[in-house]
């Protein structure tokens, strides 16, 4: 599986990268802008990502903006249903408001930090990623 | 619904909404339990509740809750279209309640930080076969089976943060040695070291890397850090100790709120306050965003109608939104404390000894003082009213208990509820739920006769329990009445004798009410066989004890053959009472004014000494029990006072008069009840202490405790 | 709270308050309490007696709105009581969240006693043992001797005896 991780905090990024590595090849960006670029690049190379993990609080573009951008680019290209990339928001923000906004923008999973690894795995298998 | 309170955590919202839905569900079901079938409205409502819970639990990945609610949703899906005759209504009621119980139980586990691991398979299987039965019924009735209820799997998921120990917050200041070079870089090293342990961290000045001048600021003012971490203080301390150039490390405990405020202003809030204002203007929105999460169970205050509080606040949408405000319980308690302090301070000003100079012209002062007193008292009333919660929720629980217990005991009982909108202080509500539950169980179990018994007595088949609340004279009365067999005086008397709970007076020397009181004595239980629902070792004595803890009383009355009546009398509030301050020996005491009937000067001749040491006093031809408070507590002052110098307070205790001798009355005033410090062991007869206007401390007397103690001393 | 502060010196890390003791006189002896337990020292105040408590608990005082119990140290050490004078003080201490006032005859000064100058109390003693169990060490300053008190024990022991007495006479009226 091909994974994209966008996370600005170094320590979190290191941890997540290590954690995700076991599921597949994991690209890493440090801000939202790069994340969108990476997504587009992969799309153009016809090797799209299977999973994108987005932090919400990031420089340049925040997680919501990235999420919104990715979903609208997919729409433009007629990618829909199961073909759409699975997006997991990983964040410490746990307010219901944030979760609702993320769901409305089309994220697949909203995952609060610190990450509950057991549940994370459960979700991946539910999404048939592992 | 969540729009009004959207600063709460996702998980909190899920729990809160699910609980509300389940409460709602239970109400509907209990309302419909005596009907022959559910009506269309209730079917739709139950369907909707199950559908919602199914959906949200799906997102939360609580699979068993999803499965169970899905099953029940299916049942009502079919019933929505066709309601076959072969549906046993009571069975269905039971299934719905079982599902509600199961989900409530699971939610409780989640709330405690656990995993919802209850096995649902049996319940699901049962409902499944019930569903098959319904389907058969539909086909048999000649109707077409509606298309399968389409079940959409959740496509979006939420993972709550991994449970762990709670994060701690620290406010740290680092001071560097005066001659330290490049403080900013050293400060950054400290930050770097901390990062590994930090969950979140902010520091000031911020620009330590880019701005070399910041080093100078750090030297002068110190380097400040706000840290959120799971590590403890010692660990953090030792990490910072290792940093070079550090002269002094100052670590103070902090809070999440301080962390959120950051260094934007230097005001250190001691007790930051979560307040959410659902006003529609911009400012309020901003305030809302800044505010902390409000947890379920917090006060919700409604401006126009204090009575209906929480439910209205959480359900109402549209224009009335602007009238609600949600305030944390802690904040409310704090406000109450402050008002208490203010009442004391007010007394300290208005009763100030400096004003007692003879010939002082004070008319302007008195006018202003009167105004102040009025405002204080209004403020107190308003604050009290904000703390008031209706008994509705508590009473609804009782409905369920009557249903469950009566079914298990094969009795047919209806519960009538009167005055459930009566309000009492929040902290009192918490204390009456258990005693009330016990009384209701007692009524169902021991009060109402079994079916044969009622038939033989020529009573209607259906037993009736009435639960009534009313407000009278500053007290709340809660009455549990049943139309059962009533209490058997003789049986109670002989039982009490047999257990050695009373002395050898004959049954005729006691009034009926006194005999009924025996069942509240520790070690008494009239029912020979201990049943599952009442008399589980804990008896009426525990009920009475719980009620006494909130300064309440329990009165029992009964008419043989016609039923019994249990009356709980509880105060409206615990926080502030009107009291009379008095001196007795070396002690300073307060008694609640409402307990006092009159003050009497007495002389030695009025005393009657019994040979066994008990004393009575004759006042206007009546004989009352007598107690010398100072003697009772062994606090006699050195100079011997005669009874003629003292004042006797006639007090009403459970309908009986009792006379207490004290040396001197000091004042009557509003008293703020404070707990006696834990370090002092519990003294019988004292329920708290308070601070008077002059700063001295007085002890608050608790009459029931005092009486109990006295009996014990005997 | 001053507890979180630590002072650094070049080669020797030492907590700023370590080795500092508040000393006071009760009876004929001087006692010391580690300074980090001490919140403040106030003059003697009107005390409201509480019935049915140990004789050395003199009652309650009002410390700026907070009501705290006070212990008479003379009574605590079984020394005959003495009139309170204007030299009588109350040392307010905080032991793990429990705030208690100690009534003492005379406050002395804050002294620094190095660890090496503290010796354990002699195990064989003719002194009243109830006196000794709160004394964890004897500090020497020149030729003076201060008995160092362990406030935690002073409080904790009490708690235990309180529990005991509660269980005895409260059998019928115990809380839940």
Whole-number count of domains of chain A: 1
Spatial ordering of strands, largest sheet of chain C: 10-3-4-13-12-11
Average pLDDT for all residues of chain C: 75
Overall 3D shape of chain A? globular
Q: How many distinct beta strands of chain C?
A: 13
> The CATH topology of chain C, please?
OB fold (Dihydrolipoamide Acetyltransferase, E2P)
| Span of the ends, CA to CA of chain A | 8 Å
Helical segment tally of chain A? 5
By CATH, the superfamily of chain A comes out as: Response regulator
Terminal residue distance of chain C: 37 Å
So what's the oligomer here?
A: heterotrimer
β-strand amount of chain C: 35-45%
Strand content of chain A: 15-25%
Second-tier CATH architecture of chain C = Beta Barrel
What kind of sheet is the major sheet of chain A? 5 strands, parallel
- Radius of gyration of chain C using CA atoms only: 18 Å
The total of beta strands of chain A comes to 5
Flag low-confidence runs of chain C.
1-14, 127-131, 158-176
CA gyration radius of chain A, whole angstroms: 13 Å
CATH class of chain A: Alpha Beta
State the fourth-level CATH superfamily of chain C. CheA-289, Domain 4
């Amino acid at each position: 599986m091909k994974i994209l991780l966008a996370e600005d905090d170094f320590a979190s990024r290191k941890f997540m990268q290590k954690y995700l590595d076991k599921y597949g090849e994991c690209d890493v960006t440090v801000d939202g802008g790069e994340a969108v670029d990476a997504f587009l690049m992969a799309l153009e190379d016809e090797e799209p990502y299977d999973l994108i993990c987005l932090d919400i609080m990031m420089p340049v573009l925040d997680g919501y903006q990235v999420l919104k951008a990715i979903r609208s680019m997919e729409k433009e290209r007629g990618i829909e249903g199961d073909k759409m990339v699975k997006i997991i928001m990983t964040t410490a923000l746990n307010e219901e408001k944030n979760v609702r906004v993320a769901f409305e923008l089309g994220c697949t999973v909203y995952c609060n930090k610190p990450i509950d690894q057991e549940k994370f795995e459960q979700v991946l298998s539910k999404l048939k990623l592992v | 619904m969540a729009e009004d309170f959207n600063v709460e955590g996702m998980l909190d919202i899920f729990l809160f909404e699910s609980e509300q839905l389940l409460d709602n569900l239970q109400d509907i079901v209990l309302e419909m339990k005596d009907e022959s079938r559910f009506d269309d409205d209730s079917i739709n409502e139950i369907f909707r509740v199950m559908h919602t819970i199914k959906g949200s639990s799906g997102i939360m990945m609580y699979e068993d809750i999803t499965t169970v609610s899905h099953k029940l949703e299916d049942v009502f899906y079919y019933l929505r279209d066709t309601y076959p005759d072969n549906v046993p209504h009571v069975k269905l009621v039971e299934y719905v309640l079982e599902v509600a119980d199961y989900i409530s139980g699971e939610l409780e586990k989640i709330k405690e930080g656990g995993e919802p691991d209850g096995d649902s398979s049996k319940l699901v299987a049962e409902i499944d076969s019930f569903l098959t039965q319904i389907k058969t019924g539909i086909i048999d009735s000649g109707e077409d089976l509606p298309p399968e209820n389409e079940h959409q799997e959740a496509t979006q998921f939420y993972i709550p943060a991994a449970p762990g120990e709670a994060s701690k917050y620290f406010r740290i200041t680092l001071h560097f040695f005066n001659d330290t070079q490049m403080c900013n870089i050293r400060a950054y090293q400290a930050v770097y070291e901390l990062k590994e342990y930090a969950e979140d961290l902010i520091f000031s000045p911020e620009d330590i890397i880019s701005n070399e001048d910041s080093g100078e600021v750090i030297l002068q003012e110190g380097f400040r850090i706000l840290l959120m971490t799971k590590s403890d203080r010692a660990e953090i301390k030792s990490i910072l100790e290792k940093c070079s150039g550090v002269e002094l490390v100052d670590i103070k405990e902090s809070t999440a709120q301080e962390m959120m405020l950051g260094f934007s202003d230097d005001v250190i809030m001691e007790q930051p306050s979560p307040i959410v204002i659902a006003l529609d203007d911009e400012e309020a929105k901003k305030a809302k965003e800044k505010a902390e999460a409000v947890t379920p169970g917090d006060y919700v205050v409604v401006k126009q109608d204090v009575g209906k509080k929480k439910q209205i606040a959480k359900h109402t949408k549209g224009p009335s939104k602007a009238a609600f405000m949600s305030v944390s319980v802690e904040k409310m308690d704090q406000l109450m404390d402050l008002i208490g302090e203010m009442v004391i301070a007010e007394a300290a000003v208005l009763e100030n000894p400096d004003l007692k100079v003879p010939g002082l012209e004070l008319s302007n002062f008195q006018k202003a003082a009167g105004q102040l007193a009025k405002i204080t008292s209004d403020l107190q009333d308003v604050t009290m009213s904000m703390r008031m919660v209706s008994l509705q929720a508590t009473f609804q629980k009782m409905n369920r208990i009557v249903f469950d217990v009566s079914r298990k005991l094969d009795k047919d009982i209806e519960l009538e509820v009167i005055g459930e909108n009566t309000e009492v202080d929040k902290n009192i509500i918490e204390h009456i739920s258990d005693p009330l539950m016990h009384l209701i169980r007692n009524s169902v179990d021991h009060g109402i006769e079994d079916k044969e018994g009622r038939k033989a007595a020529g009573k209607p088949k259906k037993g009736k329990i009435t639960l009534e609340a009313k407000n009278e004279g500053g007290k709340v009365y809660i009455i549990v009445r049943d139309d059962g067999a009533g209490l058997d005086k003789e049986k109670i008397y002989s039982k009490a004798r047999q257990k050695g709970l009373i002395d050898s007076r004959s049954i005729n020397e006691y009034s009926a009410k006194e005999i009924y009181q025996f069942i509240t004595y520790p070690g008494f239980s009239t029912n020979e066989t201990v049943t599952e629902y009442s008399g589980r070792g804990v008896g009426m004595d525990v009920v009475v004890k719980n009620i006494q803890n909130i300064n309440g009383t329990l009165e029992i009355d009964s008419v043989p053959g016609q039923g019994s009546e249990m009356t709980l009398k509880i105060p409206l509030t615990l926080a502030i009472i009107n009291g009379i301050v008095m001196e007795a020996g070396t002690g300073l005491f307060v008694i609640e004014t409402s307990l006092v009937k009159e003050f009497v000067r007495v002389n030695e001749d009025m005393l009657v000494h019994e040979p066994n040491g008990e004393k009575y006093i004759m006042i206007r031809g009546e004989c009352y029990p007598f107690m010398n408070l100072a003697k009772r507590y062994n606090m006699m002052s050195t100079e011997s006072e005669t009874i003629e110098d003292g004042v006797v307070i006639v007090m009403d205790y459970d309908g009986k008069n009792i006379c207490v001798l004290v040396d001197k009355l000091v004042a009557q005033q509003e008293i703020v009840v404070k707990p006696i410090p834990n370090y002092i062991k519990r003294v019988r007869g004292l329920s708290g202490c308070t601070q008077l206007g002059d700063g001295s401390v007085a002890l608050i007397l608790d009459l029931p405790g005092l009486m109990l103690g006295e009996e014990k001393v005997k | 709270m001053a507890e979180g502060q630590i002072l650094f010196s070049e080669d020797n890390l030492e907590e700023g308050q370590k080795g500092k003791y508040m000393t006071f006189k009760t009876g004929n002896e001087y006692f010391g309490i580690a300074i980090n337990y001490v919140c403040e020292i106030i003059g003697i105040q009107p005390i409201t007696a509480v019935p049915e408590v140990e004789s050395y608990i003199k009652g309650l005082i009002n410390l700026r709105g907070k009501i705290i119990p006070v212990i008479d140290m003379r009574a605590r050490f079984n020394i005959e009581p003495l009139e309170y004078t204007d030299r009588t003080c109350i040392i307010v201490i905080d032991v793990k969240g429990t705030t208690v006032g100690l009534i003492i005859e005379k406050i002395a000064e804050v002294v620094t006693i190095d660890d090496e100058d503290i010796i354990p109390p002699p195990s064989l003693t003719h002194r009243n043992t109830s006196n000794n169990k709160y004394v964890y060490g004897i500090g020497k300053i020149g030729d003076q001797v201060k008995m160092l008190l362990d406030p935690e024990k002073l409080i904790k022991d009490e708690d235990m005896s309180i529990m005991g007495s509660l269980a005895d006479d409260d059998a019928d009226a115990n809380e839940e």
